[in-house]
Write a structure and sequence with these properties.
Shape: rod-shaped
Number of helices: 2
Largest sheet: none
Structural class: mainly alpha
Radius of gyration: 28 Å
Order of helices and strands: HH
Strand content: under 5%
Distance between the termini: 92 Å
Length: about 70
């Protein structure tokens, strides 16, 4: 497919708006599909880290201090 100019290539004989909007939507879907699991696993790791810190803090409070007498 050859066009005389960049403007003609972008217009695609009047169909450019449809074609480029579909490309944009497809690109956004791909980005979402790639970043979704990464962001989800990061959130899960941060939640687990917070849970471990709370558990560790609770264990430290339960340990009786040795008396010096």
């Amino acid at each position: 497919m050859q066009f005389d100019s960049l403007a003609a290539a972008l217009a695609m004989n009047g169909h450019g708006g449809y074609v480029w909007s579909v490309y944009l939507i497809a690109a956004l879907v791909v980005v979402f599909l790639l970043l979704g699991p990464v962001l989800r696993s990061r959130r899960i790791m941060l939640e687990r880290l917070g849970q471990l810190r709370r558990e560790q803090a609770a264990q430290n409070k339960e340990v009786p201090l040795a008396s010096g007498s």
